[in-house]
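Progress note, project year one: complex with FE2/S2 (inorganic) cluster.
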Amino acid sequence: FIPPSEVGEDGSILAKDINGNVIPASQILAEPPETRALVAGLAGEPTYLTIKEDGTLHPWGIVDNCTHLGCTFPWNENDAQFQCPCHGSRYDDEGRVVRGPAPLPLRLAHINVEGDYIRISPWTETDPRTGEKPWWV
Ligand code: FES
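Model obtained:
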């Protein structure tokens, strides 16, 4: 078996851990539903993957980069929000702003499982949360 190439022609990459090792999809999917798993995504940016209730991955990854001034932030399971520690911005579970000063929703990336790999690719089409062209494209 030959693993898929790490970088696709479409600019996609395989999800990796912080040490740069490709993470098997089975490792992420072994986590309980509603887990937000942080992986190294496009350009090495930390990206949250969401495990859905049915045990599959949500097709949107959420980039861990606050749209205020770029801090990284944790997922708060109790509040079901991403909460930025720098200036208090809060985002809902799909990355919409709930409280500023963040001005914009969190960036998205496409998530696809290929065999035992997770492929992350750029999100360039309509932002499903706003129905508009993504602000980051
Ligand atoms: Fe996140 Fe300012 S960088 S609230």
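The CA atoms of residues 79 and 92 lie 9 Å apart.
The longest strand covers residues 108-114.
No further modelling is planned for this target in the current period.
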